[in-house]
């Protein structure tokens, strides 16, 4: 637009910001993207990508454990080398950083390196440079949160999730504090690397917000694998001993002696120091940018997407939000995003996959529901003899027969859930699930062969 340097200024080079910038430029907009660190944001640098690489590496301990039952023998003792994994991970992340820059360059998106501050409804300052734009998009993501030293003395001796990806040595023992997906994933991953892991959570069950059966099943599986899971406890203070170890004083009077403490206690929107409130953008008590259904803030020229709006902290969701903003602004569309039946996964060992309503949510929303559950030993373990179990659950709206919830704990949960999410998005019914022929032998076929409705046990029966 005349009078502005750019049609769109994007602050943040993560998934949502890069997608919005690239697509807006493809629609003919003049776009500049402002980023002070490496391209790719949390997901590429200190989130989903390195986490998944670590999860792959960690899972080899299971393969090594189980291969003898299938006739495989190593010539010598297997040994894990943390430095090799970290070095290869760093190379892959650097490659992805470069790809993001190439994508922006090919799309004719200008990149301004530095910290962007919003200094007006149409102005962003980067160092000594002032950029003007018809629209501004804030896509600065989130950051790990941990208590302040006044709340928890010695917290400076602990790590947050960002530190995990840069540590030079693998600790012998680790305490992970938290019960969300980051906490359980990291606890599971490092246990697979041979670390003696304690997982402490102040709540009653892990993964608040997930289906209660999933929460229960995952806790059981983690404990069966040897993780020390502690509920209803949280650290009060941390002290460093002369030998370098940490003494963690819990609020239940227990003292945990460990080599490292990971505070996986949540993430908060990354809005500090952006100048948003100074120009009239309203934030929530947690610092999230408040937006309408088109991701427009209380300042009409400023938009926000991704973790910074604290709606659904998932990379594919940020991508979809960024795409929608670009299309609405530069193609003249007026769409909003439907978050229903968004699948998600937790990359623990075993993994979790879920899409749709939890049982509690479904009962509240639909009233009468029908439940179908299955527990079974994965076929892999018919030879290994290990007692790992897979759990699957379907939730069906009793009135319409539509499958409104699907939950799984077991190997390949993410891959299985993704496919069924398409069917559920299209409104598939239980009758259509039942009419679908399964792939045999596979775990996924269980979801189309569950015929018997689950009913809670009566008095005297075993659940």
Q: What characteristics describe this protein?
A:
alpha/beta; 21 strands; five-stranded antiparallel β-sheet; 12 helices; FAD/NAD(P)-binding domain; single chain; 3 domains; globular; Enolase-like, domain 1; seven-stranded mixed β-sheet; about 475 residues; about 25% strand
Q: What does this molecule look like?
A:
With 463 residues, the protein is an alpha/beta fold. The protein folds into three domains: 6-143 and 268-330, FAD/NAD(P)-binding domain (3-Layer(bba) Sandwich), CATH 3.50.50; 155-265, FAD/NAD(P)-binding domain, CATH 3.50.50.60; 344-448, 2-Layer Sandwich (Enolase-like, domain 1). 30% of the residues lie in helices and 23% in strands. The protein has helices at 15-26, 41-46, 48-66, 82-106, 161-164, 181-192, 212-224, 315-330, 359-366, 381-384, 413-425, 430-435, and strands at residues 6-11, 31-35, 110-113, 116-120, 123-126, 129-138, 142-144, 173-177, 196-201, 228-231, 235-240, 246-250, 255-258, 260-263, 267-269, 302-304, 344-346, 352-356, 369-376, 390-397, 403-409. Helix 1 (15-26) links the parallel strand 1 (6-11) and strand 2. Helix 1 packs parallel to helix 8 and helix 3 packs across helix 6 (181-192). The longest helix has 25 residues, at 82-106.
């Amino acid at each position: 637009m005349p009078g502005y340097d750019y049609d769109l200024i994007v602050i943040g080079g993560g998934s949502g910001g890069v997608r919005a910038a690239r697509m807006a430029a493809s629609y003919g907009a003049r776009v500049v993207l402002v980023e002070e660190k490496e391209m790719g944001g949390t997901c590429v640098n200190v989130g989903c990508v390195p986490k998944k690489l670590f999860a792959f590496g960690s899972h080899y301990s299971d393969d090594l454990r189980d291969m003898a039952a299938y006739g495989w023998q190593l010539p010598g003792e297997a040994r894990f080398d943390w430095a090799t994994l970290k070095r290869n991970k760093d190379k892959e992340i650097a490659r992805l950083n470069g790809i993001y820059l190439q994508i922006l360059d090919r799309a004719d998106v200008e990149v301004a390196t530095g910290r962007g501050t919003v200094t007006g409804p149409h102005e962003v300052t980067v160092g000594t440079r002032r950029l003007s734009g018809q629209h501004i998009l804030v896509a600065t993501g989130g950051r790990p949160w941990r208590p302040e030293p006044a709340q928890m003395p010695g917290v400076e001796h602990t790590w947050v999730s960002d530190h995990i990806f840069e540590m030079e040595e693998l600790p012998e023992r680790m305490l992970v504090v938290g019960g969300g997906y980051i906490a359980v994933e990291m606890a599971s991953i490092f246990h697979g690397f041979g670390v003696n892991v304690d997982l402490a959570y102040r709540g009653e069950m892990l993964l608040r917000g997930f289906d209660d059966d999933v929460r229960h099943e995952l806790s059981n599986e983690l404990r069966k694998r040897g993780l020390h899971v502690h509920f209803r406890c949280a650290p009060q203070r941390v002290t460093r001993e002369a030998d370098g170890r940490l003494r963690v004083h819990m609020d239940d009077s227990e003292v945990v002696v460990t080599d490292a403490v990971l505070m996986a206690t949540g993430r908060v929107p990354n809005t500090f120091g952006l100048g948003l409130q100074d120009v009239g953008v309203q934030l929530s008590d947690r610092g999230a940018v408040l937006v309408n259904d088109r991701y427009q803030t209380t300042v009409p020229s400023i938009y926000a997407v991704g973790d910074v709006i604290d709606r659904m902290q998932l990379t594919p969701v940020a991508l979809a939000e960024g795409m929608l903003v670009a299309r609405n602004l530069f193609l003249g569309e007026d769409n909003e995003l439907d978050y229903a039946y968004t699948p998600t996964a937790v990359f623990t060992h075993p993994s979790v996959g879920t899409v749709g309503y939890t049982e509690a949510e479904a009962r509240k929303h639909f009233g009468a529901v029908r439940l179908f559950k299955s527990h079974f030993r994965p076929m892999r373990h018919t030879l290994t003899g290990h007692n790992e179990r897979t759990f699957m659950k379907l939730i069906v709206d009793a009135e319409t027969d539509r499958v409104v919830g699907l939950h799984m704990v077991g190997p390949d949960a993410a891959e299985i859930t993704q496919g069924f999410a398409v069917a559920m998005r299209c409104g598939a019914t239980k009758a259509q699930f039942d009419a679908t022929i399964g792939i045999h032998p596979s775990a996924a076929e269980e979801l189309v062969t569950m015929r018997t409705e689950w009913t809670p046990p009566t008095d005297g029966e075993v659940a």
